[in-house]
Design goal:
This protein is α+β, with helices and mostly antiparallel strands. Helix content is 44%, strand content 16%.
């Protein structure tokens, strides 16, 4: 194979690999949206989901019905400036927010919803207190970013500030956003946040919710690390033999 033919082959192979990867990520974003819709966190066209692949971002298209999203309704953009690299639909109006989170916090995926419990809390509180230790998976207390019009640089900057040291934030009178290293984790964070907001609302309806103080939160972190909390563990050999 001569040099010219080798160069053409290598270029074609790289393009094929790239397209395949983007196809997988687009399908994953569509799957995540359909799951969030089934869980009741998405309604109509409200919300957006994205995943980062190197210097590219696969993100939901504006105006798409998310609970029925298909891979062709996921657009690929450049992380640096949001230029559309692949796809025939304009990306979400919250693109600047997504790109900002990737640039500042190095996230792997982002979920933004108008989930009912989270949105209700965002209309009342300035922060969701740590009423349950599972909120520590999101960084503890969840801040509420000050209100700004959707799709604006002001909203993006407001949310970026609220996410400092956290993997979740509420958006005043708007919704919620979570991020994580993987898309599955970002979805789980969104579900956890919605659950926690529901717990807070039910507790507040009965009285003043107790909040875990710093000492109690630290004790939970230490216990989780010591026990490798949240993962499965095989039965020790000695116990297995006694069965």
């Amino acid at each position: 194979m001569n040099v010219t033919l080798f160069h053409v082959y290598a270029t074609f192979a790289a393009m094929t690999d790239s397209s395949s990867a983007l196809g997988q990520e687009r399908a994953a974003v569509a799957d995540a949206c359909r799951r969030l819709g089934a869980e009741g966190l998405l309604i109509g066209t409200a919300g957006n989901v994205s995943v980062r692949v190197g210097e590219r971002v696969a993100v939901t298209a504006t105006g798409a019905v998310l609970a029925a999203l298909t891979p062709d309704q996921v657009t690929v953009v450049d992380l640096a400036d949001g230029t559309v690299l692949d796809g025939g639909l304009r990306p979400t109006s919250e693109l600047e927010l997504h790109l900002g989170v990737y640039r500042r916090y190095g996230a792997g995926a982002i979920v933004h919803t108008h989930a009912p419990m989270a949105t209700a809390v965002s209309c009342v509180l300035d922060e969701l207190p740590c009423v349950h230790y599972q909120l520590l998976a999101l960084g503890g207390t969840v801040r509420v970013a000050p209100y700004a019009t959707f799709g604006t640089p002001e909203l993006a900057e407001s949310v970026l500030g609220a996410l400092d040291g956290r993997s979740a934030a509420l958006m005043a009178n708007h919704g919620a956003v979570t991020h994580a290293p993987t898309l599955d984790q970002a979805v789980e964070h969104a579900l956890l946040l919605e659950w926690a907001c529901g717990v807070y609302q039910r507790a507040a309806a009965m009285g003043r919710p107790r909040v875990l103080d710093e000492r109690q939160q630290l004790a939970v972190i230490e216990a989780a690390l010591a026990r490798d909390y949240g993962t499965t563990h095989p039965v020790p050999p000695a116990q297995e033999e006694n069965r």
